[in-house]
Amino acid sequence: MPLTRPLTPDDLDALLPLQEDGAVAALGHIFPQQTHPFPAAEVRSRWVHELADPGIRSFAAVEDGELVGFAAVRGAELFHLGTARPTWGSGLAARLHDEVVAAIAADGHTVAWLRVFEENRRAIRFYERRGWVATDEVSWSLFPPHPVLRRFELPLR
Asked: What stretches in the chain show pLDDT beneath 70?
């Protein structure tokens, strides 16, 4: 049975606290909350726009009727992937990752790509264990303090 279903605007009230909790825990060393708090209003606005964009596929991971994770892809780019903090270490993120990567491959892409904060060692380890490889391409976050993002790619079979 699939873990995911399409993410919809009706999911936003459950999604945003889940995403904020995970982002603060995982990225607090990159975005210190005293000086760079989670931009909840901007993140909500982005999700509203992304959910309305026909070029973006958004996924809700649901267990026992509860939203426990989310992901989004645009073409071959995986640009959102997160799970509820109580699920960390449970294997849920790996299952969500695999389902979303399979969707990218099913769309005919031969290489998937994503960007990860260079200082997010936990996420980098997660992706490297799944075969993602860092490239030389970097960019910077739009959110202050504008940390470096590294591009990773995954060949799809």
From this structure: 1-2
Say what the pLDDT of residue 3 is: 84
Please spell the DSSP secondary structure of 47-110, one letter per residue: HHHHHH-TTEEEEEEEETTEEEEEEEEETTEEEEEEE-GGGTTTTHHHHHHHHHHHHHHHTT-S
Sign of CA dihedral 137, 141, 142, 145: negative
What pLDDT score does 50 carry?
A: 98
Give the number of residues written for the chain.
157
d(CA 156, CA 115): 17
Distance CA 157, CA 146 (A): 34
Among 147, 146, 103, CA closest to 123: 147
> What is the per-residue pLDDT for 1?
55
